[in-house]
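tool_call predict_complex ligand=protoporphyrin IX containing FE
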Amino acid sequence: MTNTINSPSTYFTTTLKDTIEYSQTKTISKVLFKDNNTQYTLLCLAKGREIKEHTSTRNATITAIEGLGILTLEGREIILTPGVFIFLPANTIHAVRATENLSFMLTLSEHLQAKSGVSQKTVDIVKSTAPMLKKRGKQITTRMYEIMFHNHPEVKKQFDMSAQANGSQPAKLANAVYGYASHIDNLEALKSTVETIAHRHVKTHVQPEQYAIVGESLLQAMKDVLGDAATDEVMTAWTEAYEILAEVFIKREQQIYSSSPAVL
Ligand code: HEM
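tool_result ok
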């Protein structure tokens, strides 16, 4: 049974203990709050009830509130007593059995890898910037490196500075950004480019946390060079698009660092 208590647009508070109720014939499930990303549900299982083995496509957390139960997690048994907190990555096989009346909060949240891609609106906006990026791409990436080396001089040592001076690296990055804008809805077409770049990144010891630095520098450079054409809508779309591209590189580079075969 699902019973939505609240779908608020502002904060709300509730005392979980007052919300708990048990039924001998069914598991009580109360959705406290739900949006596009996350669902917070109170689950109450009377003594002896169980939720059979299943998986979720979303990441989950379980926080036991009262009673006693057993969570079976990929064959391992975990005792659920008040205060126990468990994180379950998406697709983990699990089951729950109540040895006494048992209540717990279940949070389900979307995770980035499950995202099939960016929204259609973002695709359309990013694609519409492709001609502009073809024309002014190198100006943008030249500015991007200027911003990045100024704000984060420590990354300079990873780069071949002669390729900066002769403009070849900004040109390569501009090509990659333009390629992404043109094929954002068909990442398969970028596979060989992603491979080349990812291998170069691994050779130069690029780390996942450095993607935020490149991202903020690139977005700022777009604003600086494109001026009025870098509307809020364009910047929002590119922020989302960059995050997805960064995820693709980070994932592939992690695989290369640990020497596993290619997956895109
Ligand atoms: C989505 C973001 C990124 C894109 C699209 C991108 C793109 C590229 C491209 C096209 C190349 C040239 C590859 C080749 O030689 O054929 C390259 C090289 C390189 N990238 Fe990235 N990159 C990104 C993020 C980063 C990050 C986060 C870092 C970390 C600081 C980084 C550091 C480097 C370095 C050090 C090289 C080698 C440049 C050299 O030899 O001077 N990149 N990247």
